[in-house]
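Is this the right way to post C-alpha cells for a design question? Let me know if I should format differently. Anyway, here goes:
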C-alpha cells in the first residue's frame, strides 16, 4: 500500500515539474499579485468578514509572505496534487476492497491527465486542488468512522471553495453503494447535512455570494444555462478522452434553443447517467464512479450560471469517478492489460500533460494557444493583444485588439486598450 502511494506521489510530482518554470497568469494577478488582502496576515484578518474563500486566501498569504515569486506557489500546487492522488488511492481501496490495482490505475490517471494542468499549473486554480484536499481527507475520516472530524473538515473544504457542498451527497452515494441501512446513514451523516443547511443559509445571507449569484443570472436565464451546460459537460467529457484542444478560455456559447447536435449530446449524457443509476445494485462501484462524475459537476454546471460555461478545472475531482468506473469495468470484463499497454497509456498522458504545461511558459504562448483553439473568442484575442503589448510588440497588439472588436463590438477592454495604445 505505502509503495503504491509513494509511486503515485512521485509520478504526480515528476509529471508537473515543468510547471515550476511558469509565471503568474491572468486571474493570478487579480486574486494574488495585485490583491493586497493576500499580501500580509494583518490585511487578511482585517478584511476576512467581507470576502469569500478565507482558507484559500490564507494559503496565498502563506506563500506570499515567504516569497512573492511564482516558484513557491507552483511548488505548493504540485504538492497538493500529489497528495490528492494518494488520497484518492486510499479512498478507492476502502471502497473497492481487495482491488488495489484498480484503485491505483484510477488514481494514476487522475495524477497524469493533462486536463489537471488548469488546477495545478495555473496558480489560481489552487481553489480546486486545495478544496479537494480537505474534501478527500474528510471522506477518509468518514470512512474511518470519524464522523465529527469529517464534518469539521467539511467546513474547511467549504471555506476553500463552495463546490465542496457536494460532500454530504458523495457520502450518501457511498452508503447507497454499500447498501447501508437508512437508520445508520442518518446517524452517521446528521452533522454533515446540518452543516450543509447552515452553509446554504450563510451563502444566502452573505452579500458577496448573493451578488455573485445575481450576476450569474444576469448573464443567462435558468433555461439557457441548462441548455448551455449540456454542451459544457459534453465538452469536458470529450476532452477527457481526446486529450487535445485544451483551452484556458474555451468561450463556449450561451445556447437558447435545442439543436440536433445538442439533443444528441443530451441523449449521450442521459445514457451514461442511466448506466450509473441502473447499476447501483449489480455493479455498485461502476455506478459510483459514473454518478460521482455528475455529482461533482453539479455546483458548477447545472442551475447557477457562471461567467464561463465550462473550464478544465471543473473536472479536477470529477474525472476520478470516470477513471474508477473505467478501471472497474475493465476488471469485470477480465480484459487483461499488458504492462506495455499500461505504460503506453501513461506515456501518452504524460506527453500530453507536459505539452499542455508548456503552453503556460509565458502569457503570449498561453493566449496564442487559446486563440488557436477558439479563434472566435474576442476575449482571448484581447488578452493576447495585451500580452503582445507588454512584450513591446505593439503592431501585433493592435491587430489582436482590432480582431477582438471585429468579433465582438462590445469587447470594451479591447476598445480601451486600442485607444490607450494609439494615445501612447
Amino acid at each position: 500500500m505505502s509503495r503504491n502511494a509513494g509511486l503515485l506521489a512521485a509520478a504526480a510530482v515528476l509529471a508537473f515539474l515543468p510547471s515550476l518554470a511558469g509565471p503568474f497568469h491572468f486571474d493570478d494577478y487579480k486574486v494574488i499579485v495585485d490583491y493586497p488582502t493576500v499580501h500580509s496576515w494583518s490585511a487578511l484578518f482585517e478584511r476576512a468578514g467581507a470576502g469569500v474563500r478565507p482558507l484559500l486566501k490564507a494559503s496565498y498569504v502563506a506563500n506570499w509572505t515567504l516569497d512573492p515569486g511564482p516558484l513557491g506557489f507552483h511548488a505548493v500546487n504540485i504538492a497538493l496534487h500529489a497528495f490528492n492522488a494518494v488520497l484518492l488511492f486510499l479512498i478507492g481501496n476502502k471502497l473497492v476492497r481487495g482491488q488495489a490495482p484498480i484503485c491505483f490505475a484510477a488514481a494514476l490517471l487522475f495524477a497524469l491527465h493533462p486536463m489537471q494542468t488548469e488546477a495545478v499549473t495555473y496558480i489560481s486554480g489552487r481553489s480546486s486542488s486545495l478544496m479537494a484536499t480537505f474534501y478527500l481527507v474528510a471522506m477518509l475520516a468518514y470512512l474511518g468512522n470519524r464522523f465529527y472530524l469529517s464534518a469539521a473538515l467539511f467546513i474547511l473544504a467549504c471555506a476553500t471553495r463552495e463546490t465542496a457542498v457536494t460532500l454530504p451527497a458523495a457520502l450518501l452515494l457511498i452508503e447507497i453503494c454499500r447498501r447501508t441501512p437508512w437508520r445508520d446513514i442518518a446517524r452517521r451523516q446528521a452533522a454533515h447535512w446540518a452543516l450543509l443547511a447552515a452553509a446554504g443559509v450563510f451563502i444566502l445571507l452573505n452579500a458577496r455570494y448573493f451578488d455573485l449569484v445575481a450576476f450569474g443570472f444576469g448573464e443567462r436565464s435558468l433555461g439557457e444555462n441548462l441548455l448551455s451546460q449540456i454542451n459544457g459537460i459534453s465538452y469536458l467529457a470529450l476532452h477527457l478522452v481526446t486529450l487535445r484542444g485544451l483551452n484556458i478560455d474555451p468561450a463556449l456559447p450561451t445556447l437558447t434553443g435545442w439543436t440536433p447536435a445538442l439533443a444528441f449530446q443530451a441523449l449521450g449524457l442521459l445514457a451514461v447517467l442511466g448506466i450509473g443509476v441502473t447499476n447501483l445494485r449489480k455493479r455498485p462501484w461502476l455506478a459510483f464512479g459514473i454518478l460521482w462524475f455528475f455529482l461533482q459537476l453539479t455546483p458548477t454546471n447545472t442551475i447557477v450560471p457562471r461567467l464561463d460555461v465550462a473550464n478544465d478545472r471543473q473536472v479536477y475531482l470529477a474525472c476520478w469517478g470516470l477513471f474508477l468506473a473505467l478501471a472497474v469495468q475493465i476488471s469485470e470484463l477480465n480484459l487483461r492489460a499488458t504492462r506495455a499497454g499500461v505504460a503506453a497509456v501513461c506515456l501518452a498522458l504524460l506527453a500530453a500533460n507536459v505539452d499542455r504545461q508548456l503552453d503556460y511558459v509565458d502569457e503570449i504562448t498561453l493566449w496564442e494557444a487559446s486563440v488557436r483553439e477558439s479563434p472566435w473568442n474576442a476575449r482571448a484575442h484581447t488578452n493576447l493583444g495585451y500580452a503582445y503589448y507588454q512584450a513591446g510588440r505593439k503592431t501585433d497588439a493592435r491587430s489582436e485588439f482590432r480582431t477582438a472588436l471585429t468579433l465582438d463590438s462590445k469587447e470594451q477592454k479591447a476598445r480601451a486598450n486600442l485607444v490607450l495604445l494609439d494615445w501612447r
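Format looks fine. Someone answered above. Worth noting: Residues 93 and 100 are 6 Å apart (CA to CA). The radius of gyration is 22 Å.
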